[in-house]
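Lab meeting, item 3. Inverse folding demo.
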């Protein structure tokens, strides 16, 4: 009976070992499944964290690109305004030079006209003096001739009287 027990015990032992192996395999399978599940969860959390970080980085890049674009637009506007201002300054300088030349020309013309008027007045004054002097000369000649005639008449009268 002892042998039977041993044989029976062997059967129980085999069944126990079999059961133990199945339990180990089941546990290993469960552990493996749990590890896969945990790995998936970790990957999902990592992907979510990376997605959040990536989205944040993309937002930062977009914001920096927007700011860069605004800065470039501002720089272009500034350069355009500077060119416009420089062009206005050149145009103003050109206009001022034109006006200055025009004013110089007017002043020169006025000076020439004034000088011509002054010379004309001096010529008229000279002509008037000459005319007045000629008249005086004529008047003096006439008076001289009258005086001479009167003197001759007196001389003739006195000669007549003596006679």
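The presenter then showed the designed sequence:
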């Amino acid at each position: 009976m002892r042998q039977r027990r041993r044989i029976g015990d062997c059967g129980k032992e085999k069944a126990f070992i079999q059961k133990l192996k199945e339990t180990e395999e089941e546990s290993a399978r469960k552990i493996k499944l749990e590890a896969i599940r945990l790995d998936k969860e970790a990957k999902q959390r990592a992907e979510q964290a990376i997605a959040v970080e990536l989205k944040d980085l993309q937002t930062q890049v977009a914001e920096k690109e927007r700011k860069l674009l605004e800065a470039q637009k501002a720089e272009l506007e500034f350069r355009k305004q500077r060119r416009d201002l420089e062009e206005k300054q050149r145009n103003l300088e050109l206009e001022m030079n034109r006006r200055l030349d025009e004013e110089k020309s007017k002043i020169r013309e006025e000076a020439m006209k004034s000088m011509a008027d002054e010379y004309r007045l001096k010529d008229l004054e000279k002509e008037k003096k000459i005319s007045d002097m000629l008249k005086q000369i004529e008047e003096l000649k006439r008076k001289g001739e009258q005086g001479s005639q009167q003197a001759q008449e007196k001389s003739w009268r006195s000669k007549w009287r003596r006679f």
